[in-house]
Design brief:
By secondary structure, the protein is mainly α. It has a single domain, classed as 23S rRNA-intervening sequence (de novo design (two linked rop proteins)), CATH 1.20.1440.60. 85% of the residues lie in helices and 0% in strands. The longest helix has 29 residues. The chain is elongated, with a radius of gyration of 15 Å.
């Protein structure tokens, strides 16, 4: 299986792009404070999946999947801060929450599948 075929990877990539499209329109102060942190966290979800996938060893793949999950929850925190500070709308916030919850389930299932392959 290729990395690009993993649904959790595809959804993580989409999350990063959705975040980017919003943050790119913020003013300098908002980008420089929350924006950079949010983009980095969102992009790290897919990036860590990629790194773990490329390691070809189940323990490293699992560790990088844990890092990915940490980045996912960091993204959730930055989005909550953005919402609380009126930087994103309630509708955007709800869509992001749904996306993050969906990715979290798929990421946990991916981690379980790695553990099963390890035997």
């Amino acid at each position: 299986m290729k990395l690009e075929e993993l649904q959790v990877y595809q959804l993580s990539m989409e999350l990063g792009e959705k975040v980017w499209k919003i943050v790119i329109n913020w003013n300098y102060f908002l980008k420089d404070t929350i924006g950079k942190q949010l983009v980095r966290a969102a992009d790290s979800v897919a990036a860590n999946l990629s790194e773990g996938f490329g390691r070809f060893h189940y323990k490293e793949a699992k560790n990088f999947s844990y890092y990915s999950r940490g980045s996912l929850y960091e993204t959730k925190t930055w989005l909550t801060k953005a919402y609380n500070r009126n930087m994103i709308s309630e509708e955007e916030f709800k869509v992001f929450q749904k996306d993050i919850n969906n990715i979290a389930v798929k990421l946990n299932n991916y981690i379980k599948s790695i553990e099963k392959k390890a035997g």
